[in-house]
């Protein structure tokens, strides 16, 4: 028997790596995890958590405006970016500490250092120390993609956006996906002028078309500007520090901040995986089988680095499945069907299952039910913003195969409704459920 320093060495203490390390250790494995930045990973440190707190912060803009119609005199509200930024960062520190303590309480050795792979069982830390492990789990996440155009270095990514010294007056956001639409709502709420620049004419590819269109229409009504089919040509820095952004097909835009939200690629560059012969795909993702195992027997990978579904709950499930299967003697595979997801735009979008288009292509015969309504709070507030809920039903089995919504609290409502879709319930099961009145969610059981 070869003896190794550790049974498991995990690269990356993010959503997937933390779960896998903690659970493997609980099963009795000797585990170490290397983290080159901060324990918690993207979601906790510079993703889901601080982003959602900024969304809450920005929402006060509309709430304070609407409050007047509900009888409140709130004077002239003033927003202070530095206060919110520092409070959010303090909360991130708190969670970072809690994650570290959880790992240590589970006897996982936390090594704050960069690790690279040297062979199927060998790694090297930036400090120069070499370690060996029976199994290596690659969980380094993904990294923002920045388009290769002159002056791109003047832009920032989601890595930097949480730390801005001051609130920019004019923001250009490149991309039309999750991060672009979420930060458009955030900056607009804080009072910045926002322009989204996208190279195609579609935002949020993969979401239901009508729901995306509704977000676009609401965002434009709010004053967020869009430039479509506008690939970047160059970015220049002007004498006053502002940026002049040149795109094909439209006039240049002057802005104080350019945020690239143009996708994320697996973080495998310089990771040394070639030293062990680990196969990567064209995007640099580790190719794994259903059990998260690479082509090298001792090397596994979970989370964004595998480029399957870039969401935290999926990375966590993959980490758990790895630990259960490899150290817990409980072979487990992640079920990738009916994954609910949300865009924390203003208002938010949430969806589960097939979109109308996908269902038509796959099933042929479908029924679509929808409710297009103005939430009662918006009516009294005089806010002309309508919600849209769509239910996609298989016409043969009557099962609900998709639910898609845009409107206040859509992610909160959808999480509960996703249980019904996952369980394969029919439209009749929704109809049989008594409405909870008055709520927005009741629209789901009143669809005719
Ligand atoms: C702005 C933003 C908002 C997001 N919002 C949401 C959301 O609302 N909901 C959602 O579900 N998902 C969201 N995501 C996606 C989510 O953050 C990721 O899917 C998730 O964090 C992936 O987990 P992971 O374990 O694969 O990697 P990560 O959480 O990225 O963790 C990887 C860790 O590995 C470390 N690392 C990398 N290389 C090395 C090395 N060589 N040595 C040591 N350490 C290394 C990194 O520093 C990092 O801490 C968001 C992402 C971003 C960028
Ligand atoms: N709420 C959430 O769950 C959430 C929030 C943020 C991020 N995430 C995860 O992080 C991932 C990365 O987010 P993202 O918004 O960066 O990626 P994304 O894949 O959602 O969107 C990328 C966008 O950038 C556009 N684009 C690509 N190259 C471009 C270029 N050169 N110029 C202009 N536009 C360009 C694409 O057309 C697309 O609209 C997401 O795929 C998602 O899985 C999830």
From TrEMBL:
Protein name (Swiss-Prot/TrEMBL): Glutathione reductase (NADPH)
Binding site for NAD(+): 175-182, 263
Organism: Sphingobium boeckii
InterPro entries registered for this protein in UniProt: FAD/NAD-bd_sf, FAD/NAD-binding_dom, FAD/NAD-linked_Rdtase_dimer_sf, GSHR/TRXR-like, Pyr_nuc-diS_OxRdtase, Pyr_nucl-diS_OxRdtase_dimer, Pyr_OxRdtase_I_AS
Catalytic machinery residues: 437 (proton acceptor)
The protein's Enzyme Commission number: 1.8.1.7
Binding site for FAD: 52, 304
Entry cofactors: FAD
This protein's record includes keyword Oxidoreductase: yes
Cited Pfam families: Pyr_redox_2, Pyr_redox_dim
Source taxonomy: Bacteria, Pseudomonadati, Pseudomonadota, Alphaproteobacteria, Sphingomonadales
Gene3D superfamilies membership: 3.30.390.30, FAD/NAD(P)-binding domain
Catalytic class of the enzyme: oxidoreductase
This protein's UniProt keywords: Disulfide bond, FAD, Flavoprotein, NAD, Nucleotide-binding, Oxidoreductase, Redox-active center
Family: Belongs to the class-I pyridine nucleotide-disulfide oxidoreductase family.
Domain FAD/NAD(P)-binding: 7-319
